[in-house]
Amino acid sequence: MTLPTTATAIAAAVRAGEVSAREVVDAHLAAIEAGDASINAFNLVLADEARAAAAAVDAKVAAGEDPGPLAGVPVALKDNLCTRGVPTTCSSRILDGWRPPYDATVVERLAGAGAVAVGKTNLDEFAMGSSTENSAFGPTRNPRDPERVPGGSSGGSAAAVAAGFAPVSLGSDTGGSIRQPAALCGVIGVKPTYGLVSRYGLVAFASSLDQIGPFSTTVADSALLLEAVAGHDPLDSTSIDAPAPSLVDVLDRGVDGLRVGLVSELMGEGIAPDVAGRVRQAADALAAAGAEIGEVSVPAASYGLSAYYLIAPAEASSNLARYDGVRYGLRVDAPTTAEMNAATRTAGFGAEVKRRIMLGTYALSAGYYDAYYGKALKVRTLIVRDFEAAYERFDLLLSPTSPTTAFRFGEKVDDPLAMYLNDVCTIPTNLAGHPAMSVPFGAGADGMPVGVQLLAPALGEATMFRAAAALEAAAPPLEEAWS
Q1: CA dihedral over 233, 234, 240, 241, signed as positive or negative
Q2: Domain ranges of the chain
Q3: Nearest to 455 by CA among 275, 193, 231, 270
Q4: Of residues 92, 153, 317, 438, which has the active-site annotation?
């Protein structure tokens, strides 16, 4: 029997007793063993734990119990999500040997829904990067072309799904770290409304921006996964006190009458012609499905990159102060506490993390706080206001996800500004706290995937998923290069 490949089909088959969770998990573990040596999507494969979890799901099915909506579905977890008793490294040397004493809320909820964690995925160290080249475990490669990056920072989670190592995965998105790698690897990637998914147990980068979300090969699978992990969590003070939205049930409602605005600031300079062409093609597809398409301006979005690279490093500077060689992780001994602290952080953090800590510390320092961090917060407010004005006219917005298709290794790693520009289309949504998702829509001129980005107002996930389903149905095949 051929095993189902999507999370939706796997869960249905396992719950019906047509296949066992153990068969499904064994097949995916075999795929990881056969293929991950050349991709490096995983920092750690949890083979024994996954088989034990699959056996528990099968026992529930045999007993006539419902194992949950994700019964037997293998899921890959970004290695900044705490997993009890399992190394959680953030792809950094500084957390060497640390095993969290608790599970992240999303990890608990996945287990409660019957999902099976198969491993922890590689990322840019502490989620700081756009290519997964900044990892203490070495770079992850793009399954569609191993000479190219998978995007970042959740490159391992995107690559795991694109390579077929897991039907779904979880990543985190601070400035585009789910959507950008989803675009570059040709999969679905969703950044939910800030506060919709608990951040408890997510190792913090920038606490006012971080959000956990799904990767998948289908819109329906992302809807299923997001339903499972979303909802109020009293352990997260920023969690929205409301039930998780219903998403799977809205996917067939279409886009007839929806107003969709093409964001002019995200379609101009710096956007590759083939990427812009695919976005316009996506707009035409939505129009053909019954949506009303127009152009919209979000003026302050142009300043998003500048504001983000003050706010995010400032928060990182504060959050990463806890890695001091005293409480957990790496410790480099030295004669005095101050020297030990400095030696530990010097050895433990990579170049990009050090760069952002220094940027953030400078922006928060006396005499510069108002000029830099304070001004960036004002720009953030302007971005929120401009989005609010745009959503008075439109139900959803449309833009590229990434300015280009996947680039080659080493192409941008020595030029931080060139690397930061990869997130120019995704950052404004994080600053506003709104949801957005990347949907594959054909390939660029180089044959690599192009992702188009749907943006929605806060808690607008249901409408966003309706449009995503319409785009998925109309998308050109990834094998068809732009011409």
Answers
A1: positive
A2: 7-236
A3: 193
A4: 153
* Cα–Cα dist 186/190, whole Å: 13
**Residues 180 and 215: beta-carbon distance below 8 Å:** no
Q: What is the mean pLDDT of the chain?
A: 96
Residue 384 in tokens: 């929120």
Choice among 60, 78, 120, 191 that is catalytic: 78
Q: And the tokens for 429?
A: 């949504």
Q: Which of 91, 130, 172, 177 is catalytic?
A: 177
Known catalytic membership, residue 153: yes
Phi, psi dihedrals of residue 44, rounded to the nearest 5°: -155, 130
Instruction: Quote the CA–CA distance of 348 and 356 in Å, as a whole number.
Output: 14
User: Tens of pLDDT along 252-303?
Assistant: 999 999 999 999 999 998 999 999 999 999 999 999 999 999 999 999 999 9
pLDDT band at 416 (very low <50, low <70, confident <90, very high): confident
Three-state DSSP class for 325? coil
- Per CATH, the number for 7-236 is 3.90.1300.10
354 in active site = no
Flag the least confident range among 203-217, 357-371, 391-405.
357-371
Q: Contact, 398 vs 470, CB < 8 A?
A: no
Q: Is 78 a catalytic residue?
A: yes
